[in-house]
Amino acid sequence: MENSKGIRIAKLVISLIAIIGLLVYSKEFFLDEVDENSGSEQVNQPVSESTVLPVLSPVPAAKKTLEELVAAYGDIPIIDAHNHNAGSSKYNAMLEVWDKHSIDRVVLFGAVSEPVAVETDQLAWRAYLEHPDRFIPFFSGVNLLEESGIETVRANLEKGYFGIGEIAAASIHSPLLANVPWKTKHPMDGVLPQIYELCAEYKAPLLLHIDPLNGVVIDKLLEAVEKYPDTTFILAHANAYNSPGHVELLLEGRPNLYADFFAGFTAFNKDSEYTLEDYVPVIKKYPDRFLLSTDSGFGLESEEVAIEAVYQLIDALDDRELAKQVAYDNLDALIQQQPVTATQLAAIDALNLKEVDRPDMKSLSKVEAAKIIYAKQ
Ligand SMILES: [Zn+2]
Q1: SS3 370
Q2: What is the pTM of this model?
Q3: Which of 53, 55, 60, 312 is most buried, by CB atoms within 10 Å?
Q4: Nearest by Cα to 266 from 279, 247, 282, 283
Q5: Per-residue pLDDT tens for 139-180?
Q6: Cα(198) to centroid of ligand 1, in Å?
């Protein structure tokens, strides 16, 4: 990190020297013009583009550092919508980093669509009990190929988890997920259709890993999205190996499909063919359908780099309201809309609260119910 900081400072110094040089050069250039034409009408004539462009275009804007970006945008609340750090040593180590870079909340889970995910789901839950304002626990330890998977989903949503994922609804190329035992072949395979129905009942979203993002698996995703209009589907890292035009095509006319935007991939992965700026028009077209995430810095130098990319995207949006919407409000709305579950109601009943302390059980949300249950323990 020290090294790259040094390089950045060196680049900045070179850029500044170049700017000063060009300014001096251009000033002399224009002064010469004025001198030559002193007193004549020509002085006030507009300078043609061909005269101006060669002076301005060679100097790119200096890239802002993460510290500068956090200073500029740290007041905008941010939820990382996709994070694998459920292991306690992992999330405890990250708390300081999230604080430092103003990441307010984190959608937390661990392993994906394999038996060990059952354990990491429990760790995500524990993290949530320890830091309820920081973590939004999701779960992935679901056998998507057997009936038992449906019961796991119901039990976890009843308990108070806020979403399913990341799950492998299709994976052919991912080095990590192509061979996990609980993945489905495509988004209409296994017990996924029944799980979609359950998610609609609980108003809980699903974060689906799908690769590749074309062919049969995408046809099946669109089939699912259309067949289950009351289910919220979040396409994990929708911008990875996917063009802005294709993201736009997927979102068009499908209000229950959201795009998880893994800014770090576009900004820093060498396989990315696009820039963050390339995605700004589609984000502006569907501002209520994007969520921002780090994917724990998958494939990058560090998670911190992925956080830097989130801020770079916020900078590229150049619209603080829109930034808040995609960085926080969209995901927060998906969590707040979830109603209290029967299991939570039973837990509140068991608290034997005094009549005055009893909440209005009918209008209670899952978030509010959890606050009551866990505040009393
Ligand atoms: Zn992931």
Answers
A1: helix
A2: 0.83
A3: 312
A4: 279
A5: 999 999 999 999 999 999 999 999 999 999 999 999 889 889
A6: 23
Task: For residue 47, report the distance from its CA to the centre of ligand 1, in Å.
Answer: 52
Instruction: Dump pLDDT digits (tens) for 8-63.
Output: 666 655 565 555 544 444 433 333 333 333 333 333 444 444 445 555 555 667 78
Instruction: Say how many Å lie between the CA of residue 315 and the centre of ligand 1.
Output: 24
CB within 8 Å of 30: residues ≥ 6 apart: 47
Ion ligand 1 — residues with CB under 5 Å? 166, 295
Among the listed residues 145, 126, 54, 48, the one whose alpha carbon sits nearest the alpha carbon of residue 85: 126
Question: What domains are defined for the chain?
Answer: 76-336 (3.20.20.140), 342-375 (no CATH)
> Which structure tokens are listed for 365?
């949300």
CA gap 306, 64 in Å, rounded: 15
Which residue positions in the chain have pLDDT lower than 50? 1-2, 21-51
The 3 state secondary structure assigned to 47-91 is CCHHHHHHHHCCCCCCCCCHHHHHHHHCCCCCEEEEECCCCHHHH
